[in-house]
Amino acid sequence: MKKIIIAVFILLFSLQSCKENKKDTAVTKKEVSDLSIYNLPSKWTTQNGNDIELKSLRGNVLVMVMIYTNCKAACPRLVADMRDIEAKLNKNTKKNVKLILVSIDPKTDTPEKLKVFAISNKMNQDPWLFLRSSEENTREFAAVLAVNYKQISPVDFSHSNIISVFNPEGELVFQQEGLGVNNEKTIETINNEAEKI
Amino acid sequence: MKKHIFILTFFLMLTGITIAQEIGMALIKEGRFVPLYGASSKKPVSVKSFYLDIYPITNADFLSFVKKNPAYSKSKIKGIFADKTYLSYWENDFDFGSSKPNSPITAVSWFAAKKYCECQGKRLPTMDEWEYAAMADEKTIDARTKKEFNNYILSWYEKSKTYENEVGKTFKNYWGVYDMHGLVWEWTSDFNSIFLSGESRKDKSSDKNLFCGSASVNASDLMDYAAFMRYAFRGSLKAQYSTRNLGFRCASSTKPKINL
Predict the structure, then answer these.
(1) Terminal alpha carbon distance of chain B
(2) DSSP per-residue letters across B196-214
(3) Domain limits at B89?
(4) pLDDT interval class at B128 (50, 70, 90)
(5) Is the model's pTM score more than 0.90?
(6) Interface mutation target, options A3, A8, A11, chain B, most CBs of B under 10 Å
(7) Are A158 and B216 a contacting pair at CB < 8 A?
(8) Which of B192, B204, B236, B257 to mutate to test the interface with A (most CBs of A within 10 A)?
(9) What confidence tens digit (pLDDT) does each residue in A57-106 have?
(10) Which CATH number goes with the domain that contains B167?
């Protein structure tokens, strides 16, 4: 019986999500461009426990990276790369830029866990933002960013090290691949986009 | 009383099986296997019981989906969800041209495939689920060590344009599923969890810096060349890509309801 109820729920939920998206695309059709991430209807939670839609970030230049807080190998370096970018941003237009860290391990990375990570890395304030969502939404978002990841043990993931820059309309304009690479082009792109606002 | 319950359970099971067949899905029973790729230190992964479409989604199936969801038609789909080759062989939004209605839909992006399954109340199978169901031949659950089985798959890889064939013409496997090999390649929900060196995106051999912990995952058996080809192909895909030899089918963790 329990199983049936669960099945019905899952079915209702999935049917609903199908229709919901249809509505969403209809409403946003005129506003959002074809290549914008704001076409994604997914809901996300911040390190402060606030639920947001990606759309609410519209109008900012977004610099995004996918990480997980348990990571001991590449992530600290990715975070350092993000910090380095932040330090080199044009002071006048920096207010138009958000630097966002998205968790690929939503099971472990609760808002509370992200908050702790944010505080210990001194990133618990603007322009930093931490986001998590369901595993499915995370997989989809990674697909958009062309970020590959796989859980390889209960605590560890393999993942691509890619920092993505989105213009105010949510269109992907630049990707920096690899760790500790030259970030001149990344910063130039961010500053240019932020100036346009 | 006990007997009654037994009969009742048997009856329920029977109807369950019939319903599953009516809606075109087969039950794949749980099990463990060592996939070619993705298991850390060759430990078997567990696959829970799930339902899988007996056939890949066809042109006719996809046409009726597009009619209900025009946002996923050839001209309307948003660039973020599909590249320019999306449904390239279709004449227009609601006409798949000279292709057969019963041929598998191909040239669809991962986003479109995912949406199709969601609208059926289903989902895409995971890579482990797909590989688990695909290692069966007609008679056995795991035929991967059989020479004829691998030869069959590899000889298909050499054939061209098998996507023009109709579904259900290859062999029916142990689970009652057709066309896992011999027709088209298929999307999986987590296709983007593959790391192979010399990845096409960067095309730098063993650029270890790109990946965190990349050294800990390696192909567990390079002898299984047929599977290696599949993983390599998946590793080269992006979710927006649409290619002519890539289709999909849907899966479900629970017994699917009949959509009337």
Answers:
(1) 36
(2) -TT-TTT--TT-GGGBTTG
(3) 2-252
(4) very high
(5) no
(6) A11
(7) yes
(8) B192
(9) 999 999 999 999 988 777 788 999 999 999 999 999 999 999 999 999 99
(10) 3.90.1580
